[in-house]
Amino acid sequence: MSDSTIQSASLDVPVRSRFRLDNRYIAPLFITFILLVGHLFYGILESYERTALAIVAAIVTELVLGRIFYSKWLNLSSAYISGISVGILLRSPAFWPYALASVLSIMSKYVLRVKGRHLWNPSNFGICVLLFLAPETVASLSVQWGNFKWPLIVIWVLGTIIIYRAKRIHISATYVASFFAFAFLRSWITGDPVQAEFAPITGPMYQLFVFFMITDPKTTVKSKKWQCIVVFFVAFVEMLLRLNQVVHAPLYALFLVGPTAMLIEIFLESRRKVAVAT
Amino acid sequence: MRGKTARIILLIIFVALIATPLVLKRLSRNRATAKTDPSSSLSRYGFYLQEVSQTANVNFKHEAPTLDHRLDHIMPQVASMGAAVSVVDFNRDGWSDLYVTNSGEGSKNALFKNNHDGSFTDVAADLGIADVNQPGTGVSMGSVWGDYDNDGYEDLFLYKWGRPELYHNDAGQEFSRVTEKAGLPAWVNANTAVWFDYDRDGRLDLFLGGYYAEDIDLWHLKNTKMMPESFEYAKNGGRKYLFHNLGDGAFEEISQKAGIDTRRWALAATVADLRGTGNQDLFIANDYGISELYFNDGKQFREVGKDTGVGFSPKSGMSASVGDILNQGRYSIYVSNISEEGVLIQGNNLWVPSEGSGGDAIKYENLARAMDVEIGGWSFGAQFGDLNNDGTLDLYLVNGYVSADRNLNYWYDFSKIAGGNSTIISDAAHWPAMDGRSLSGYQQKKVWLNDGAGKFVDVAQAVGASDVFDGRAVALVDLWNRGVLDVVVANQRGPLLIYKNNVAQENKWIDFELEGASSNRSAIGAEVKVFWGGREQVQHVSGGSGFCSQNQRRLHFGLGKNPQIDRAEIRWPSGKIDKIDKPTVDQVYKVKESA
User: Fold this and answer.
1) What distance in Å separates the CA atoms of residue B353 and residue B364, rounded to the nearest whole number?
2) Were B490 and a residue from A63, B57, B83, B229 both cysteine, which residue would form a disulfide, CB within 3.0 to 4.6 Å?
3) Chain A residue at shortest CA distance from B429
4) Which of the listed CATH numbers 3.30.70, 1.10.3430, 1.10.1660, 1.10.10 matches domain A10-277?
5) Which of B314, B341, B347 faces A43 most closely, judged by CB atoms?
């Protein structure tokens, strides 16, 4: 699950594949489903226009930059996910932050690259920049979507199935387990009710965070073991930020830990290549 | 080479885009004006405010209630309302008086009688409407005045977290408690009420909006699951009441029959004829959810919030007021919400009727951002009024939730729990302790001056509205009969402030004091349209607006310099229309509904 990956579908079983959904469309479909459920049941969006603006800005940026730098029209599923993530996760009464966050998200894939790999999850980057630089205009999604349990259960179950199918369930599971462990620890340290520490993960922001952001194949390290370790550190840094009363702790934690892990991996890989070459 | 150049250009654009929020912030900074001296304010903005409560002999400090001890850890934010002010001329001497609520158990409300010399005397105890917060009866949240029996004297409806009370005004000499005769419910945790004649039968009816559910006694909780079930989608608040005036001192509760059936957390309601039908439509600003708009078809209401656009995006509605801000003869609706930098940016709403829409098909657009009245902190009461008599309605907004330790902030914990599932957020026991921390405390007020061209400018600091108390209710009233609007602010756990308004003399005005005949005698719901110099402005007599407040009954129109008034049209709730041709400026017109 990713908002930056461009995956190719498996074509080894041609007959069956006609009836199977291409993997790269599962994520956009699922996030669209979340959006529709959220909005139709609870009116989660600031407005249709703002979310549409975020999506269009991401898609146009991807089209233009893909054309310039790769001389082709790229598959737009990743840009669509980035745009829709910005449209859902960002909360602002203004229009411009939606466009700017989406454009920055996509541009970050082209600008912030090391050894051919981009470092930040695109929408995480775009949203964090806005949260950090425009706090008077922008906040993140931090409230519940209504009080109905079933839509939430459906989203969690579907998300789990899809993430399992994408072979990235270990990342989400590690993060969720770590979050709960650290929630207990935070409660013990601060004396606050443990329910208060659990509260954030029951919100929709975490659904998107757990299923889309931290599992992004393009901005996670390669080995399964290290993916789990990295995401554990995301939860750990989030805890440190939470103990310092940072409101957007999970987004900032991923912003800090994700690229650091990527850089370490790139550095180790290049050293390995040098060693092999010599 | 081409690729390298493209990458450099992309990098430059990328950096420029990242810098964009900082540039925008710099550009928008200081739209709010800095502190200045009175003479500069007068020449630049046409008015300045002077806080005169002490010299006016008004020494009133609001006390908050102490609720069930199981709420001790979050008491400052639960016991965070109750400071309210409403304007009334209770003794019909032609001078406005002030009724102010208190909320400590055993504390006294005050009725400040206007002595006509700039001073006031608290006569509430003498008249029997002071000692209304006795333990076991709940505490005051606000009041609205209306002449429900058309005897010429304004009666007092007091809403509480507790037992609502109706007091009959006995010719301005004393007040008689008539709650039982009126048939009011035993307990309502209410934060809003409005007098209006919904069926235009010439008798005032009463809307009462519950906040907490009415089966909750906040001093004796059955359990701690009394908080909202969601921060933006809560429907476990108090029920609503519509009391139909039967004319014999009794009221019949008809909300469900009339189509008003909601359990959202109402914090403010106001009423106006939004469609030009003659019927008074009802707008409810709800905390923890969307606003609701009820079109009144005469006997029946229907909720049209989503259809009209005002009930779409859930926020934290705190105040509702209407005003013809564009001088188009149409009302816009202002709803205050919560904005806290870096945490929650709801933005206040200014619902302006869309161009070309009207009648039942009226649509509203939120122009708060476009008109620069969007960000007001943790906003509470807001009222429209022409503060500098320039002919356009300005907006006064008070704010600030809990001002405790200046260096400690509860927002992180608040945002943490606010995002929780209903089983978590709805239980007060799950909320982290406040421990003396502030929550949007010490906020600067907003005095938004309407430039008449679609923009407002905050001049609060420049004109002297410099207090940082936790403002709740604000009422606009000409306290000294000078043809200007003074400002009265009720602060939670703080003093009642009276800002005397000093307005540039060259700006003219006209006032209307209406008395109904076949319409209700308070003339609540009557509209006056003034036409001058190619402009028109409509105002109406309100039975309650803003947050827990009621402005003066007299309608005040600023007219600017050298105005020539063409005419004034008065449309009474009965449907009758009276006209005054070429009225003179700087006059109070006392108009009785024609037979």
Assistant:
1) 4
2) B83
3) A193
4) 1.10.3430
5) B314
Considering the entire predicted model, what is its pTM? 0.93
Chain B closest CA to A17's CA: distance in Å? 38
Q: Please list every residue in chain A whose beta carbon sits closer than 8 Å to the beta carbon of residue B32.
A: none
CB B461 within 8 A of CB B30: no
**Which of B298, B192, B163, B184 is closest to B243 using CA atoms?**
B184
Q: Which of B314, B412, B424 sits opposite A199 (nearest CB)?
A: B424
Give residue A7's pLDDT: 39
Comparing alpha-carbon positions, the chain A residue that sits nearest to B7 is A111
pLDDT of B456 strictly over 60: yes
Query: How near does any CA of chain B get to the CA of A215, in Å?
Result: 23
Give the tokens for residue B364. 């509203």
Report which of A47, A115, A68, A59 is spatially closest to residue A271, judged by C-alpha positions: A115
pLDDT tens-digit readout, B308-327: 999 988 899 999 999 999 99
What pLDDT score does B36 carry?
72
A190–B420 C-beta distance less than 8 A: no
**Domain residue limits, chain A:** 10-277
Nearest CA in chain A to B435: A192
Per cent of chain B over pLDDT 90 is: 93
Q: What is the mean pLDDT of residues B477-481?
A: 98
Q: Which residues of B touch A108 (CB under 8 A)?
A: 14
- What pLDDT does residue A20 have? 57
Say how far apart CA A261 and CA A230 lie, in whole Å: 7
Q: Residue A21 above 70 pLDDT?
A: no
CA distance A74 to A26: 17
Q: Is A151 on the interface with B (CB under 8 A)?
A: no
Is there a contact between B474 and B396 (Cβ–Cβ < 8 Å)? Answer: yes
- Which of B7, B233, B344 is the closest to A144 by Cβ? B233
A22: pLDDT confidence band, cut at 50, 70 and 90? low
How large is the average pLDDT for residues B420-442? 95
Q: How far is CA A231 from CA A78, A160, A175, in A?
A: 21, 17, 6
Single-letter residue type at B501: N
The mean pLDDT of chain B is 96
Residue B244 has pLDDT above 60, yes or no: yes
Query: What is the structure's pLDDT at A9?
Result: 34
pLDDT over 50 at A5, yes or no: no
Q: What is the mean pLDDT of residues B67-82?
A: 98
Are A104 and B412 a contacting pair at CB < 8 A?
A: no
| pLDDT for A50 beyond 60 | yes
- Check B420 against A142: CB less than 8 A apart: no
Chain A residues within 8 A of B411 when measuring between CB atoms: 245, 247
Give the C-alpha separation, B549 to B320, whole Å. Answer: 10
Q: Is B231 on the interface with A (CB under 8 A)?
A: yes
ipTM of model: 0.88
Residues of B in contact with A110 (CB under 8 A): 7, 10
| DSSP secondary structure string for all residues of B286-302 | EETB--EEEEE-SS-EE
Is residue B76 a contact partner of residue B432, using CB atoms and an 8 Å limit?
A: no
- CA B317 to CA B191: how far, in whole Å? 12
Count chain A–chain B contacts defined by CB atoms under 8 A.
157
Q: For strands B155-162 and B165-170, give the pairing.
A: antiparallel
Q: Is A129 on the interface with B (CB under 8 A)?
A: yes
- Weakest-pLDDT range from A134-138, A236-240, B65-69, B208-212: A134-138
Q: Is B23 an 8 Å CB contact of chain A? A: no
Phi-psi region of A238 (alpha: psi -120 to 50; beta: other; left: phi over 0): alpha
Q: Which of residues 65-104 of A touch B (CB under 8 A)?
A: 65, 68-69, 91-94, 96-97, 100, 103-104
Checking if the pLDDT of A43 tops 70, the result is: no
